[in-house]
Design brief:
Strand order of the largest sheet: 1-3-4-2-5
CATH topology: Alpha-Beta Plaits
Strand content: 25-35%
Number of helices: 3
CATH class: Alpha Beta
Number of strands: 5
Oligomer: single chain
Structural class: alpha+beta
Radius of gyration: 15 Å
Order of helices and strands: EEHEEHEH
């Protein structure tokens, strides 16, 4: 059994009433791993600026490769990693964002994965009660 660790969940609750969105059944995940020991936090304070820059670039690249068929639904932070979750339609090619991010930030481990989540199960799991 894995120990429970602290997490911070930033979720866009604008989709609460409309999820799942049938046109956006694919869940894309990007993981950005910290370079420095986060100590007692989610990331080391010295990494804040570059992690925020990577996030901004990630969102911009996903808008470009999403071709109007992507929504950024949430970010989950746990010690040492920021995880980004986006729902996309079939014409979006979010995997194309990964090489650009890796090239711009070779000192960071950045990963990508996706799965079919037509029920938006990942999103609804993290929605707080109304």
């Amino acid at each position: 059994m894995r120990p429970i660790q602290p997490a911070s969940v930033l979720i866009d609750d604008r989709f609460r009433e409309t999820a799942p969105v049938a046109e956006l059944p694919w869940l894309a995940w990007f993981g950005v791993y910290c370079r420095l020991d986060p100590g007692g936090g989610f990331w080391h304070p010295d990494e804040t600026e570059v992690l925020d820059l990577i996030e901004s670039e990630l969102i911009g690249l996903c808008e470009t490769f999403g071709r109007g068929w992507v929504v950024y639904s949430m970010r989950i932070d746990t010690p040492g990693i920021r995880e980004y979750y986006l729902y996309r339609g079939e014409h979006a090619a979010l995997e194309n964002a990964l090489p650009s991010l890796q090239k711009a930030h070779p000192e960071y481990r950045i990963e990508f994965d996706e799965k079919y989540d037509s029920d938006w199960e990942r999103y609804t799991t993290y929605l707080p009660p109304e």
